[in-house]
Amino acid sequence: MTTAQRLHIVPSQFMVEHLPNATFPDDDEWIALVRAPEGLTVVRDASPFAEAERWIGFYGDASHGLETPGMLAAIVGPLAAAGISVFVASTFHADLVLVPEHRLKDAITALRDAGHRVENSAGTLPAG
User: Is the whole model's pTM more than 0.85, yes or no?
Assistant: First the structure.
């Protein structure tokens, strides 16, 4: 089994927020929520006016289900080796892997070097 994947860059930019005293956000403008003892983590589309760090998402185009081992590791491993931070929100079918916007080019290079195909909505991204 190969873990090389075709990844699409999600057209949206995201923000990752920590709400330490919340159990649910005040609005319904979120993409993913994780409730933990230390508070709520919220992933949402980045506002054009927000000064928070922006994250770019990679999402696989092939559903792999929960029983397929190594799919997420095949993506985050090369990013970790390149020193790129990630935030991951997993779905039933695939994983949304976020990287800081300023590291996008480095992330694309690391993923391609690991054998993944990286595309945006217009098709394959140019090299470099």
Answer: no
CATH number, domain of 65, equals 3.30.2130.10
Report which of residues 88 and 93 the model is more confident about.
88
Does residue 103 sit within a domain? Answer: yes
Note the pLDDT of residue 67.
Answer: 67
**Domain region containing 115:** 6-123
Percentages helix, strand, coil for the chain, rounded to the nearest 5?
Answer: 20, 40, 45
Question: 3-state class of 30 per DSSP?
Answer: coil
Report phi then psi at 73, rounded to 5: -60, -35
State both tokens at 18. 């920590």
* Domain-embedded: residue 87: yes
